[in-house]
Structure prediction request, 307 residues.
Amino acid sequence: MEEILNTKLSIESWLQIGIAILIMYGIIELVYLYFFKKYVGMKDYKQTTINFGFVILMNMLIGSIIGTLSTGVFVIWGYQSTFFTTDLVWYWWIYGLLVYELFYWIQHWLAHKVRLLWCLHSPHHAPESMNMFVGFNHHFLEVMFYMPFFLGFLPALLGVHPVIVLSISLVDVIWGNLLHINDSVMSKKYGFLEKILQTPSYHRVHHAQNIRYMDTNYTSITLFWDWVLGTLQPIDDSEKVVYGITREVESSSFWDVQFGEIMLLVKDIWNAPTLKARFLYMVKPPGWSPTGEHKTASALKKLATRG
Prediction:
């Protein structure tokens, strides 16, 4: 256990260095877009910057009270796993990546298909532009509890060595944030890597509110589970990506981005005609209606296909 905890501290140090480099790049990208591109999405920076500071503050506050769940719990549970292995040979790394990315796909799919979870995930999709700071734009509850459960505890429970979980998490954070590079900075595709890895072009599709692009490209490192589970969608150069979410949102407003979806859900639950409808509002996809007049991504895609 002591060796694993020491390794955890080492990986966390590298993570901090990686995040610092990403932040520095994000600042350089911001300056470049402002002075050289006169970028139209500059208003999003206000909200993403405030949110970044807010998430750090909440992590410090909550973490000091209950401990940081994202850095230790899955190590303990991993040791109790029936499938736990101690050898870090190459095939266990492949197994670990497959398991980690499967749970990444599942948690990301749920975040788009369960409205209560969408309330936590929607801040990441609310900005109407794409830049490096959007990669950090998450709800603090999603970062502290939801994602660590799926991307730490559950992989360890299936026998993925904690060191492998932590190492893949490091790659996930670094590469996952790089997927948000602004298309004015890097618009070209990555050649052969487009066949095996999630790249900025795939992730721009994921952030689109275009009906064709909705609810696709859920993984963050490879394309494997999106390909297997039928959610892989390459970008179509003939259809320009429109960023943001389908409701009207003030993307420069911290309160609207972070809590707008939650307030709308509360309003729908309050006005729901039955107890069953109140429950379904929470667990059905965003856009579900007890009247049957659904505006979910699936319903919109079906309607577009018929048209």
User: Anything to note?
Assistant: The first helix runs from residue 2 to 37. The CA atoms of residues 208 and 243 lie 5 Å apart. DSSP finds twelve helices and no strands in the chain.
